Input
Amino acid sequence: MISLLLSRAAAIVLGATLLAVSPVGAAGPARAQASADASDTVTWSVEPADASAATGEAWTELTLDAGQSVTEHMMITNRGGSDVVFRLSAADGYFTDSGRFNMLPADEASVDAGTWITIVGSVEVGAGESVIVPFTVDVPANATPGDHPAGVAAGIRTGDSAIGVESRVGFRVMTRVRGDLAPALSVADQQAVYSPSWNPFLPGSLTVTATIVNSGNTRLGAVAHVASSGPLGVLATDTTPAQIAEFAPGESRTITTVIPEVWPAFATQVRTTAASIAVGGAEPLREATGSAQTTVATIPWSHLLLLATLALAVVLLRWRGITRRKIVARMVDEAREEGRRQGSMTNAGLAVLLIAAVAGGIVASAASPALASTGRSAVFVDVDVTPLPLAPSMTPGTPPPTPAPAPGDLAQTGRAVDAGGALAAGVLAAAGAAIYAARRRPRAGDPRS
Output
């Protein structure tokens, strides 16, 4: 229980400290308000001053040599209605992520410029009055060149000794030690994560996280620049995140940048570059830059899926075309084979007709004498000459009388040509013509068809 209360008290102290310290670039004195008890509220302010009055500055800027010592002043104004004893302190300073200046809490020991400042432990300020308090800055002889932030504050403590809340208000004391000033920036711990779009017609996004480090010895502001590009610099994009207002030597800031339109290119190079900018109250310095580069895998999954689908469609269409060509070729082969079979059957039929015609001619030739003897159904003339004996009454040298032919009789000479032979000759001629026509008929697949 006690540890919990102590933790809460420490958190309240830190919160009051953050509230009390003047912000960077603020004009006028820093003010704070706290309740000393249930019936009294204390309001006060602290600001830089000289030996007689406030200077009107927001903080104190010093440029000293190593081993040098100076005396500065702070003015405390009690704006409450009762006298208050303020506790005075000095501590190392630092900058928050928003660029506001702060001091280490009272329970954390200083190691740098906070130890260079000597100031009285407390001062009493009457109601409505102001008090100027001197403090000394002693730079060690072995101090390193560069900027050393610290701060002075006046505060009050409320509560008992076990559980108390300290409220402080003060301003920064920035001491620059002369020497080799080396402003420098570096980029560390860069990481990039690519979020692809499953719509192949839309780009993805790239989230880049990097740490900007003030690796020099002077306080700086910085502007980061994040760029990405595919192989050979294609599909390049870039963006500029919010700038870093101010940070002291050794401090760092982590920035996160989202590049919204990044097309996948299998491998994308990401480069974060930081460039220094001047800060208020500091002397101009040479520019400092730092950069880091990484490569992140940007696989175009949606595009590969689309290409695979198109390739499959092409393969299916090609396979279908090859199958159809095979079917057509098989049908053509079958038609050719059918044509060959039909041609063979036709030739065989013609051969049968030819054989029948020849056989008919032979049969007709064998039957031709019988047909010739009838004298009526012959289709050719056969002449037979037979000498007649002389009649007794005929005188030698006198031509014999010519007998009158019988009606329907013709003179016969040679052999009889019957109708069967003529028919066989016609059939033979027809068979030859049919064979010639069958040879000339175009077949399937023939170039003449």
In short: The radius of gyration is 63 Å. Confidence is low (pLDDT under 50) at residues 1-27, 370-379.
